[in-house]
C-alpha cells in the first residue's frame, strides 16, 4: 500500500461550517470532501431528456405536490376539529 500524501487547505469560517454540517458520523473531513466531490449535480442530467419527457416529469411533480398539499390540508382540518 502506498504512502498517503496530505495537503493543507485553507477554508473560510463559513466554508468550514458548511463542510462540518455535511460531515457524517465516523467520517473524516477527507472522506467528506471525497464524497461531496463525487456527487452529481442535477445540471449533469441536462440534455438527457427530450422536452416532452421533461414536461411530463414537471407535470407529474406538480400533481404530486398538489396531492401532498391537499392531504396536509385535510390532516390539519382533522387536527383542528
UniProtKB/TrEMBL annotation:
It comes from the Archaea. Pfam families: VAPB_antitox. Keywords: Toxin-antitoxin system. Residues 55-81 have a biased composition (Basic and acidic residues). InterPro entries: Put_antitoxin. Residues 54-81 are annotated as: Disordered. This is Antitoxin. It comes from Natrialba swarupiae. The lineage of its organism: Archaea, Methanobacteriati, Methanobacteriota, Stenosarchaea group, Halobacteria.
Amino acid at each position: 500500500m502506498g504512502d498517503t500524501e496530505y495537503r493543507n487547505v485553507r477554508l473560510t469560517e463559513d466554508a468550514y461550517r458548511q463542510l462540518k454540517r455535511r460531515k457524517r458520523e465516523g467520517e473524516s473531513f477527507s472522506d467528506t470532501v471525497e464524497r461531496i466531490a463525487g456527487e452529481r449535480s442535477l445540471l449533469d442530467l441536462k440534455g438527457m431528456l427530450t422536452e416532452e419527457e421533461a414536461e411530463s416529469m414537471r407535470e407529474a411533480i406538480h400533481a404530486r405536490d398538489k396531492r401532498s398539499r391537499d392531504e396536509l390540508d385535510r390532516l390539519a382540518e382533522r387536527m383542528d376539529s
